[in-house]
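Thread: Newbie trying to understand structure tokens

Hi all, I'm a second-year student working on a class project, and my supervisor (Dr. K.) asked me to get a predicted structure for one chain before our next meeting. I've only ever worked with sequences, so writing a 3D structure as a token string is new to me. If someone could post the tokens and maybe explain what I'm looking at, I'd be very grateful. Here's the chain:
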Amino acid sequence: MDSPVIIIVACIIFIVIWYGPIIPGVIIAKKKNRSPQWFWFGIYPGAGFWVLIVMLALKPLKICENCKKKIPSGSKVCPYCAKEVTLVPSSSPEIKKIDEDKNKENKKSNKKVAIIVISVVVAFTLFIALVGSTMFTSVGNSFKNCIPYKHSIELIENNEEIRNYLGDDFEQTGMISGSLNISGNSSGEADFSYKIKGKNGISIVYVDAYKENGIWIYNKINFYKEQNSSDVINLLENQ
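---
Reply by user tm_fold:
Sure, no problem. This is what the structure looks like when written as tokens:
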């Protein structure tokens, strides 16, 4: 997948994660007689998801028939108007029917919420993976497009001893580590290493250079045939 496509997909997933929890959260808040204004925190990336989780954990409120204020669902007396909350015997057939309907509705609602939460978690995971992949690709391309990297590859290809050791089908593998700082066309610094996979295993190349007055000057380009080995070839010797 090309980098622009990855970035676009990552942005779409990021927007879904950002705004996705707000709509189901407001619906759940209204069903529980809770204030949906908490979801104003959704303007901050990721905050809406945590508000949604808190809203799912909160118990629903009910409305006092006398003062119309919200009170805990288990209250026997309204804490605002002191009116006793009317309790209907739970053995009443009408109440049983209402409770059954509410339970069915709650189960359906919980399933929808569970699907939404799982989707958000999966989307968030994919977003992190895509961002990481984009950053990895972007950093790798920055190194591979710089002149010191290209020059080191050119020296390797022109070195008969290294070419015989690596074989014809060698390739750069893994992540390029180090630093690369370029300021315009006049100055810069490069200090990095990368691995090459050939017929005899993994080799390592170290590059150290600086750019002055638009020209790259090389302190070191060393090729190590094996990791943790002192068997090194100085690619600058014959220049």
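A couple of things are worth pointing out once you decode it. Strands lie at 61-63, 70-72, 171-183, 187-198, 201-212, 215-224, 232-234. The two ends are 39 Å apart (CA to CA). Feel free to ask follow-ups in this thread.
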